[in-house]
């Protein structure tokens, strides 16, 4: 719909026009009224309607003077005049100041419909022209963000100024919006569709606020709002916009704003500076307004280490609350120290892998390991990483609880843990069976049933896996490694290694170091 503003010094006629003409049926709504030109000026500036329908003869400021005022400031606004039969000279003057048409008093409904159709056609042409100009301006700004050639940057800036009518010295500010996520109510919406919906709603919000800004769509749900820095964009009420997006679209958005100001030729630097602020969402979380005051420099120093022993003990005892507290404490330390995302991701992957090794469900397949890496590094915030680690922890705790519901499975888990921790010492089936109060034969039987391998094979696998990790250290001799993993005889260790790996320990070491 288009908006129409009515001006007439005859209050009764003004009320009749406002209340009895069926504007809605013509695709219009009355945005406001005024009783003379001077009264209209201030209201039109605030409302900025699409169409002004004004009487010609009025006190204080007549319709023609009002029209000239509008033409000087809002060349896109459509003008229609109300006039009597004996005021034809005024009609000619009205057409000279750019009126689309005129209506004779008393008003005739069919005449109103005819003139309004013509006016609406003009409004649509203006909208299409403005839309085309907006799109072109947006494309220029996007090119400026990525253009490094000084001459090309200057040419683009000149083209933008011609389209925007901004003065050469105007400074610009930038707000970056990042589409965070899509709620359950909007699961069918893709990232691109979500970004487009947000862009449309932001456009409506800017129009309501009378903010002259260019929306530039970047990749992966990011968009920029380039604005006149003199308009103090930091005071626009960004939290209200976030709430409207949540309520209307069921989407969450993070907004980064900064005090930086740059001329058109410095747009690239402005974008880089604001992206640094936006990247802080990794530590602040999503769905917020982030300013320069939220940016913290890394404190450096040694990265805090998770109390992994206590964490795993809590999970073994199925105390998920305590496990969650330990993990949250660690995340808080990483946030406070502003540990880099790559380090946080690497640490999280280590926690998950150690946890799965502990419950004897290691990630063996390379595609599963790659999937884990992709999932962790794909998290936008440290709190998503925390939730992901905790999901693995809960699954591990459930797995252990289900396993321990089976008495034999619990015993086998106990034996495997004993082997994991004491592989470097002499271990026999008798020593293991004594510790779990079972006969050697029964222990052999249930271990094979639950794991698919013999105790001897499991012990050999653990020892050789440890030996392979020790071989990465060139300072260790093969005979030392043999003893470190529980073999007194070096020759037996070598023969066992060749049988399982197809190469000698030294050959394996060479391949390891070359790779």
Question: Top keywords for this entry?
Answer:
single chain, 515 residues, alpha/beta, 5-stranded parallel β-sheet, 5-stranded mixed β-sheet
Describe this structure in words.
- The chain has 515 residues and is α/β, with parallel strands linked by helices.
- It is 59% helix and 12% strand.
- The chain contains 22 helices and 10 strands.
- It has helices at 11-20, 37-47, 63-73, 88-96, 109-146, 150-164, 191-209, 238-249, 267-278, 281-284, 308-316, 320-337, 341-358, 366-377, 382-405, 407-422, 429-436, 440-451, 455-470, 478-484, 490-501, 505-514; strands at 2-7, 28-34, 51-55, 78-83, 101-104, 172-182, 213-217, 222-228, 251-257, 289-290.
- The strands form 2 sheets. Strands 2-1-3-4-5 form a 5-stranded parallel sheet, sandwiched between helices. Strands 7-8-6-9-10 form a 5-stranded mixed sheet, sandwiched between helices.
- Strand 3, helix 3 and strand 4 form a beta-alpha-beta unit.
- Helix 2 (37-47) runs parallel beside helix 3 (63-73) and helix 11 packs antiparallel against helix 12 (320-337).
Lay out the secondary structure.
Blueprint lengths: L1 E6 L3 H10 L7 E7 L2 H11 L3 E5 L7 H11 L4 E6 L4 H9 L4 E4 L4 H38 L3 H15 L7 E11 L8 H19 L3 E5 L4 E7 L9 H12 L1 E7 L9 H12 L2 H4 L4 E2 L17 H9 L3 H18 L3 H18 L7 H12 L4 H24 L1 H16 L6 H8 L3 H12 L3 H16 L7 H7 L5 H12 L3 H10 L1
Parallel strand pairs: 1-2, 1-3, 3-4, 4-5, 9-10
Antiparallel strand pairs: 6-8, 6-9, 7-8
Helix pairs in contact: 2-3, 5-6, 5-9, 11-12, 12-15, 13-14, 13-15, 15-16
